[in-house]
Amino acid sequence: MSIDLSQFFDVFFEESFEGLDAMESELLSLEPGKEDQETINTIFRAAHSIKGGSGTFGFTAVSDFTHVLETLLDQIRNGERQLTAEHVNLLLKAVDCLRAMLTALQAQQEPEQEEANELKLRFEAILNGDNASSSQAEEVSEPGESSSLPITFQIDFKPLPYLFKTGNEPLFMIAELAELGELETQVLHDELPKFKQLNPEDCYLYWRFFLTTTRGESAIREIFEWVEDDAEITIVQCGGLFEEPASEPSESDTQHPPGEPESQADSSALTKPVQEIKKESPQVKDARKNADPSTTSIRVGIDKVDSLINMVGELVITQAMLSQIGEQEITESSIAALQEGLAQLAHNTRDLQENVMRIRMLPISFVFSRFPRLVRDISQKLNKQVELKLIGEQTELDKTVMEKLSDPMVHLVRNSLDHGLETPEQRIAQGKDPVGTVTLNAFHQGGNIVIEIMDDGKGLDTEKIRNKAVQNGLIQEMDELTVDEINELIFMPGFSTADNVSEISGRGVGMDVVRKNIQALNGSVEVSSEAGVGSTFTIRLPLTLAILDGQLVQVADHTYIIPLISIVESLQIDIAKVSNVGKGLQVLRLRDEYIPILRLYDIFNHRGAREELDKTLLVVVENDNYKVGILVDDLLAQQQVVIKSLEANYQRVDGISGATILGDGTVSLIIDISGLIKLSGLRRPGSSELLVDLKADEAVTA
C-alpha cells in the first residue's frame, strides 16, 4: 500500500520554518561560555526534526546538510566541544541557508547547493579539527561511545502493531543505520498471521540488525528515538571488536506461516541493499512536482473554532424559526415574530462575521520575531551596540496586513540603526549609555492598530534635511517650513541624507516607498523627532483589509463609500468662507486652515448632481497630513462593507480602491483618497506636495 506523501508537505514546510525560527531565536540568546543546556537542546531538537522530516520526504539535500550541523550541536550539548562565537555565527548562517533551501523546495525548485556545500565544509573542518575537548582525545573511549576502531552491535527492533499509524517507516530508519557503518539486516516474520486475519494497517514484522561502526551506541539510539515509545528496542555490543555477526537465521526463522503461499516479494524489499533504500522514491518525486507552493495555511486556536461552531448553531436555530414563520398564515403576530427573527438573524450574522475575522487575526509577534536577528547583524556591521525591546507582541492583526507590513518595518528599523543611533563612542561623549535602544511597540487604538518604531539616537537633523531638499530641488530656499514639515520631507521620492552609499542605506529609494506601501494598506505613517533624544515612526493601519468601516454618500444617482478612518468631519458650507485660488479650484477657510474643495461629480463625470455649494455637504478627509473636502449631495448610512478588488475582477480604476455590494444588490465603489487627490490634479506629480500653499493667507486670492 503506497502513501501519497504530498498531503503532508504543507505541514512539513510549516513546521520546518517554525523550527528554523526557534533555532534562530535561541541562537541569538546564546552567550558562549554561559549557554543554557535547555537552549542547546531546543536548537538540537529543531535541527533533528528538520533532518528527520526531510529524510522522510526524500529531500536529501536538506537532510545531508542538517546532519552535519546536528553533529556539531550534539557534541556541544554532550559537553564534548565548547561553544564559541564562531559556532553561533556559523549556525545562524546555516539557518539562513536551510530557510532558502526549504523555500526553493516549497516552490518546486531545486535548492542552490553552492552555499550549503561551503558551509558543510566549514562544519566538517570544525568537526575534524583539534578544538574538541582534550579529554575526548586523551581518554580511551568507553564501550558504546565513538571509537576510532569499529565495533559490532546487535540491534533488535520490534515495532508495536500500530507503528504504521504513527506515520513512521522502518525503511528510513534502516537507511540511517546504514550511514553509520556496515549493516546486515534480518527480517523476522514468525508473528505474521494467516491472510484472512491480516490487518494491512498493522505491523507484524520485526528486525535484527548487525551494525559494524566507529560510532557509539548513542548515535544508534538517536535514530530510534522517534519510535522508542512505539517499539521494543535492544542494542547489545557483540563481544568485542571485529566480532563476526551471528549466523544467518535458521530455516524456521524464515519460513512462511503454515498454509500460506510464498510471496515473491516477501521480505526482499526489506533486506535489499541500503543504496536502493536511500534513493528518492518515485512517489516522493511525483509529489514534489505536484506540490502547490502557493498553498498557505493558518493555525487557529480551538477557542476560535468552538466560538464559530456556536455561531453557526445559532444561525441554524434562527433559520429554522424563520422557516416555521414562513409556513404559517400571515398575521400581525407572525409579522412581529418575523421582524424579531430578522433582527436575530442580523445579530447572528454580525457575530459570525466578527468570529470569522478573528480566525485571520495573528499576533504581531510573527513580524517582530524577525528583528532580533536583523538588529544583531546590522549592529555588528555598523560597530554599534544595540538593545532591541519588543512591546505588545500579542497584539493581533489581520494575516494579510501582516504579510505586507514586514518590508516597510524592516526599512524603518534599518533606518533607525543606520541614521538614528550613534556609535558607542559618540553616545559616551554625549553622556548616553553606550548601548542604544530600538523599541518596537504595537497596540490597538479604536478600529486600528498602531505600530511605533522608536530609537534613543540623535534624532533627525532638520538643517541637513532642509539643505538636501533645497539641493535636490524639492523645496525652494525661501520656503518657510515648520520642523514637522521639514521632517516630512524624508518621505519624498529620491530623498536621502546618507553621505555614502552602502548596502544599508543611501540610495534614496526607501522612505517614499515605505509610505506608499503603507498607504496601499489604507494606513498612514508619520515621524516625530527631538534632537539628541531620538525619533519615533508611527504606523497606523486598519485591523483588516477584508472589511471596511465606511460612510455612504450620494452623488447624483450614484452611491460611493468613503473610509471612515479618513474622515475628519462633515459640514454644511458657509459660502462667505469660500475663495478661489485659480485654475477652477475653490478652498474653504475652516478655522485656521484652507480646505480644497473637490467636486466628486466633476472628477467622475456625473450629471444631475447638485452644483450649488449651499445645497451640498462637504466631507473633510485627511491624507498625507493634508486635508481636502469632498463635495457630495447627501450623507447616507455608515456601515461595514466587504471589500472586493476591482483590479482582480475588472481593471484598475484611478481614484477607486475597491468595490462592495450593498444590501439591495447594487455595486458601490470605495474611494481612494490619495488617488482622488492625484486624479483631481491638486497634487504635484510624483510627490506628496500639493500645488498650492494652503496655510499661507497670501496664497488665497479672490
UniProtKB/TrEMBL annotation:
Gene3D superfamilies: Histidine kinase CheA-like, homodimeric domain (1.10.287.560), Histidine kinase-like ATPase, C-terminal domain (3.30.565.10), HPT domain (1.20.120.160), SH3 Domains (2.30.30.40)
Residues found modified as Phosphohistidine: 48
Record keywords: ATP-binding, Chemotaxis, Kinase, Nucleotide-binding, Phosphoprotein, Transferase, Two-component regulatory system
GO CC terms: cytoplasm
Record-linked CDD domains: CheA_reg, HATPase_CheA-like, HPT
An example Gene Ontology biological process: chemotaxis
Domain CheW-like: 547-682
One example GO MF annotation: phosphorelay sensor kinase activity
Compositionally biased tracts (Basic and acidic residues): 275-291
Pfam families xref list: CheW, H-kinase_dim, HATPase_c, Hpt
Region annotation (Disordered) ranges: 243-295
EC annotation from Swiss-Prot or TrEMBL: 2.7.13.3
PROSITE patterns: CHEW, HIS_KIN, HPT
Keyword NAD appears in the UniProt entry: no
UniProt name for this protein: Chemotaxis protein CheA
Originating organism: Pseudoalteromonas rubra
